[in-house]
Design brief:
The protein is an alpha+beta fold and 263 residues long. 29% of the residues lie in helices and 32% in strands. Helix 1 runs antiparallel to helix 2 and helix 4 packs across helix 5. The longest helix is centred in the C-terminal third of the chain and has 21 residues. The N terminus is likely disordered.
Amino acid sequence: MKALISILALFIFGSIAFSQDIVGGKDHPMFNRLTGFYITQYEEEDFGAHIFYDVNDNEKNIEGKKTFIRYECENEVGALKIIRNFSNAIKKIGGTAYESSSNRTYLYLKEGNKETWAEVFAGDYDYDLTIIEKGEVEQEITANAILKELNETGKAILYINFDSGKATIKKESMPVVEQIIEMMKQAPDIKLSVEGHTDSDGSNESNLKLSEARAKAVVEAITKGGIDAARLSSAGFGEEKPIADNSTEEGKAKNRRVELIKK
């Protein structure tokens, strides 16, 4: 990782500690500042979310450790020059860049199981750098673990990802559905209620409808895997039953869930 950082820093120019930096402001270790810029805003969250776009212009809502840094300069540099600098640098180390306009670029780099996404939004004298570091630890779900939780607590909480604002299960979450199917094959007598939950963003009515549609989508996916529909029912509760604080991004992420309830 040290080599990765040093190579990227080489192409982004050197990092200089400017006396103009706000208290607490610092460069991200992967993205050193352009020469002549100083930090006027700095925010860091252990868990946050941001919308990015990949090279195919697909919207991606990425969650993880979030860093926001605003840089300013006394002299005109030019927005295109700023974003092109970052685009070229990330490509040099095997990443990708998508310049959606002359003043915005989206960067992506994967190393092992860790993903780093960044957005650079530039003006002629300044630029905003938003970074999300998607952690290496993923939710590990097995049929045995689901069954154990159902037998011990009467329910299993799962985090199944859907397309934003829709009831379409993302490809990355299908392995979770497959483990539910396997569990129900191992326990042929078990019957479940699949319940959808959302965070508090949006209206109560839209969240309720979305949670109902998502719960139904999970049931449909399970029945397509060979499970009798008579063993399943679905329900949606929208934002009515939070398990975490909806005022934080981490809390919202925990509230966007699917629960399997043992009947």
